Request: fold
Amino acid sequence: MPPARDSVQIAPAQGKLGVLIPGMGAVTTTFIAGVEAVKRGLAKPIGSLTQLGTVRLGKRTEGRSPRIQDFVPLAGLDDLVFGAWDIFEDDCYQAAVRAGVLDPPLLQQLEKPLSAIRPMKAVFDSEYVRRISGPNVKPKASKMDHAQMLMDDIRSFRESSGAARLAMIWCGSTESFHKPAAVHQTLKDFECGLQKSDPEISPSQIYGYAALQMSVPYANGAPHLTVDTPALIELARERQVPVCGKDFKTGQTFMKTLVAPGLKSRMLGLSGWFSTNILGNRDGEVLDDPGSFKSKEETKLSALEQILQAELYPDLYKNFYHKVRINYYPPRGDAKEGWDNIDIFGWLGYPMQIKIDFLCRDSILAAPLVLDLVLFLDLAQRAGLRGVQEWLSFYFKAPMTAPGLYPEHDIFIQLMKLKNTLRWMRGEDLITHLGLEYYD
Ligand SMILES: NC(=O)c1ccc[n+]([C@@H]2O[C@H](COP(=O)([O-])OP(=O)(O)OC[C@H]3O[C@@H](n4cnc5c(N)ncnc54)[C@H](O)[C@@H]3O)[C@@H](O)[C@H]2O)c1
Reply:
């Protein structure tokens, strides 16, 4: 059957794709070690839509469901090369051992490629991340000079790695909560602020600015703003660069966005949702600081309110109580435990309860998201998409949207939007699930 319309022009994925990552902690090392393990056939890329997912095309009767990686031209794992910045000097192997996520026998087999990845000196500000400090930082300079130094790092990495294209993804610590300030309103204000080292410009925004200036797509895996400001979105559009964020949707919020749409679909009410977590990795330590926790709390709280739409369903969701807690508990390391107590009500208001106890592994859940995001961002750029990539909301707790739009949090709508975007890129019919034609 001919395509429904012309497909989008997508440049081929030729040459290497350089993945640049501020922050080489648990998530980054688990991601890089995972890619190296998969390349060597030591493990499978479980959890990655780009590696394992399929996309149905046309009618159900056509039986066409190619793998996503065969349907759209994505960079292959063999073409990925990695660069990172961190405030600690550990190479990627040492950092992976320290993070304690992957078993030593697996890591030992990957020691050679991992130990070759040494972190570049970071742009760091202890006003934004309080609980940690390290020696591998750039010398004191203005924020604009720091941005220039990062651009030099990007150029040198491109040369030394031979990468044909680049993508940057923030996997650094969560910065403390700041609202957008005057300096974030326009690109001109922002650049002026960089020159004057305005205290409202965070390190992650300096990385974001440097990436966008170099036409490198940017994804934000943490909850702080970074590129979710008018100034940097203006730069992304000007430089024709795709951006997305914020905050990987992995453990508890992933569960929330699975369960809440289900409750709403059956018109079941909610009187309270109490969520608490214990985790003992470095991320947990940073989140123990009230400023960083506040950033996380904002993104964790927003999903439920948006999904349940109390303004449309006041009888069900007007006054529900929602609380999120994160407790730093070192014995657990990266093996987080997330508890949810959900008080719901049904027919005639009769109460019921749901308990979820998710014994998850934070970085094991996050690593495949990092992989998908860099591959899809690179695809977006080759397809000529720029600015906010709402179709990648699937991966985030607080998806970026165009101004005036509420973010879509329902994971099933997000997945449909993602796959419809891929169909649209290739000129295939969008799937509506109407299906009336089968019963005519
Ligand atoms: N693991 C998950 O499931 C998950 C889910 C959502 C969001 N996140 C976010 O992803 C990020 C990474 O998580 P993690 O578990 O790998 O944390 P981590 O603490 O193990 O690693 C973060 C690294 O960033 C480094 N860093 C901090 N500031 C930096 C800077 N300015 N420049 C360069 N490096 C810097 C730290 O030294 C550290 O090594 C965190 O912000 C976390 O909140 C993780």
